[in-house]
Amino acid sequence: METMHELIPFAKEMLSQKPNRKMVKLYMLGSVLAFFGVVIGLVETVCSPFSSEARLEDEEDKKRPAAAREQRLRQKREDLVLEKAKAAPALQRALVTRHHAS
């Protein structure tokens, strides 16, 4: 709000003096850029809840397949351990038989 109180006397002073064209163009350009900045900020503020909600859904979707993949990997590991456990006695017998044969 302070800036607005300073801006009004400044604008009155600028209008009382005859500013050259170059300065008017420069102030107009600055005003237009400031206006676009405000509009973009408002659009971003209004749309941000929707975009953050979409991001959260995307992250959840990414997590779900990862959890399923992790579950499959865990299952494969358990299956491998079971297979090795079943194969271990046969392997031990083979090693023992070979060791006794030597």
Folded structure, characterized:
With 102 residues, the protein is an all-alpha fold. Helix content is 94%, strand content 0%. It contains two helices and no strands. The model has no long low-confidence stretch (mean pLDDT 75).
Entry keywords:
102 residues; mainly alpha; 94% helix
Structural class: mainly alpha
User: Which percent band covers the strand fraction?
Assistant: under 5%
Using the CA coordinates, give the radius of gyration: 37 Å
Poorly predicted residue ranges: none
Residue share in helices?
over 70%
How many helices? The count is 2
Average pLDDT level:
75
Quick recap:
The chain has 102 residues and is mainly alpha-helical.
Topology:
Blueprint lengths: L1 H15 L4 H81 L1
